[in-house]
Amino acid sequence: MTEIIGTEPTSTIRLTVNGTLQVLEVPDRKLLCDVLRQDLGLTGTHVGCEHGVCGSCTVQLDGEPVRSCLMFAATAQGHEVKTVEGVGNDPENPSDVQQAFIDCHGLQCGFCTPGFVTTIDAYIDENPRPTEEEAREAVSGNLCRCTGYQNIVAAVQRAAELRAEGARQ
Predict the structure, then answer these.
(1) pLDDT band for position 48 (50/70/90)?
(2) Edge-to-edge strands of the sheet including 20-27?
(3) Could you give the 3-state DSSP secondary structure of residue 157?
(4) 3-state secondary structure of 142
(5) pLDDT for 15-37, tens place per residue?
(6) 6: which DSSP letter?
(7) How many angstroms separate the Cα of 56 from the Cα of each of 39, 42, 71?
(8) Is the Cα torsion angle 89, 125, 61, 18 positive or negative in sign?
(9) Checking DSSP bridges between strand 20-27 and strand 64-67, what pairing results, if any?
(10) d(CA 53, CA 132)
(11) pTM score of the predicted model
(12) Where are the alpha helices (DSSP H) in 3-58?
């Protein structure tokens, strides 16, 4: 009997990423963050701790924030994934959450920002008028080593205001 070493099982997966259907052949154990970054070139999803603690890899799966470093890409089969590029990818016309970060000076080095943006984007859909305490709780699962979180919390509330203004127009 001949044993083949180094051959990893793969699966063909179909998922929608930022509104576009993707059909990919991926190793069964490849993480969603790696497929997004390496196979699809969506490098806005950052990989920090690789343990699901820091939140830098947060994307939305069917509208809910998830840690893409803890999820095999094959488990995203048939689902909709939204990355930070799907929230907004036009520097001339930032999304409401991105504009809120700009308005409130909510970022410094920017490494954690994509995870915050995808988290906040989903959160204000559920809670369009967050209090400061609710905003702080909403981002409590994302870590930032540079800021004191005050401006990030302010950005949550500002993003909710901007989204409400956009809905009225």
Answers:
(1) very high
(2) 20-27, 10-17, 80-82, 58-61, 64-67
(3) helix
(4) coil
(5) 999 999 999 999 999 999 999 99
(6) S
(7) 19, 14, 14
(8) negative
(9) unpaired
(10) 23
(11) 0.92
(12) 32-34
Cα 47 off chain centre by: 11
Residue 120 has phi, psi (to 5 degrees) of -65, -40
**What percent of the chain lies above the pLDDT cut of 70?**
95
Rounded-to-5 percentages of helix, strand, coil across the chain: 40, 15, 45
Residue type, 27: P
**pLDDT for the residue numbered 131:** 97
Residue with tokens 């390496």: 38
Average pLDDT over residues 101-115: 94
Residue 50 — left, alpha, or beta (φ > 0 → left; ψ -120 to 50 → alpha)? Answer: left
> What number is the average pLDDT over the span 79-98?
96
Question: Residue for token digits 């993003």?
Answer: 159
Q: How many CA atoms lie within 13 A of 10 on its CB side?
A: 9
CA nearest neighbour of 54 among 113, 135, 125:
113
Indicate the SS3 state at residue 120.
Answer: helix
